[in-house]
Amino acid sequence: MADMRLLWIFAHPEPRSLNGALRDHGTAALRRTGHEVRESDLYAMGWNPVVSPADTGDDPAERFVVGAAQETATCDGRLRDDIRAEQAKVMWADAVVIQFPMWWFGPPAILKGWFDRVFTQGFAFGVRNPRTGRKMRYGENTLWGRRAMVITSYGARDSSMGPRGIHGDVDALLFPVHHGILWYTGIAPVAPFIVDAAERTGPERFARLTTDLEKRLLALPDAPTLGYRHQEGGHYDENLVLRPQYAPGRDDLSVHVDPEAVHLA
């Protein structure tokens, strides 16, 4: 297995938490086996999650058109230093780990704000394919070639997080991150590492979790990805609607997974 350059984005306020312990074990295992790891510990960094004209050097008295301002500042090199530093980490990485506790059925606000400010138009999306003139997204984009794994935890037991569980299906809850952020920008996600009943983790279970996590991390370069359909793969019509011959009679989110695909991005 070739050495890997991995960016670990950590969005938990307490380093002594279960999440913090898993992060420490995971990064140590990667470094011990010869991989390079860079970290973005968002709470420790005091990351500012709020998009503003200060990000792009625009006049706050003028109307702030976020996408256009981000694209111009990205192309002109006028983004704030903290944003450009995080973009450089993303470009350096072969793979990304995104770790967060699931709060109110989604990531903490600080992580959403990291994506809002770092994945700017002109950097992570909004770039046109010079051959087709269409905007590149969903498997064809500037961050293509990278893969990512989500690590998340929640207090509920897995039985209540299934398709018929009262909390809803965890795969559906992670769809906005997996498909709407990662795959949209060309990053291929692999199956997430999920810790249920996090607050009821004792020493024996923690030992199992660290062993399982280490195996998942070291297999990341060759792990099959979730198999989302490519926008330009012929599965969608000119209005970007899935053609009727694919997943006929269904309209759940999993229709966007190609059951025959194994993407090795």
UniProtKB/TrEMBL annotation:
InterPro entries: Flavodoxin_fold, Flavoprotein-like_sf, NAD(P)H_dehydrogenase_qn. One of its GO terms (molecular function) is NAD(P)H dehydrogenase (quinone) activity. It holds the Pfam family Flavodoxin_2. Residues 4-206 form the Flavodoxin-like fold domain. Keywords: Oxidoreductase. One of its GO terms (cellular component) is cytosol. The keyword Oxidoreductase applies. The keyword Oxidoreductase applies. Gene3D superfamilies: 3.40.50.360. Belongs to the NAD(P)H dehydrogenase (quinone) family. This is NAD(P)H dehydrogenase (Quinone).
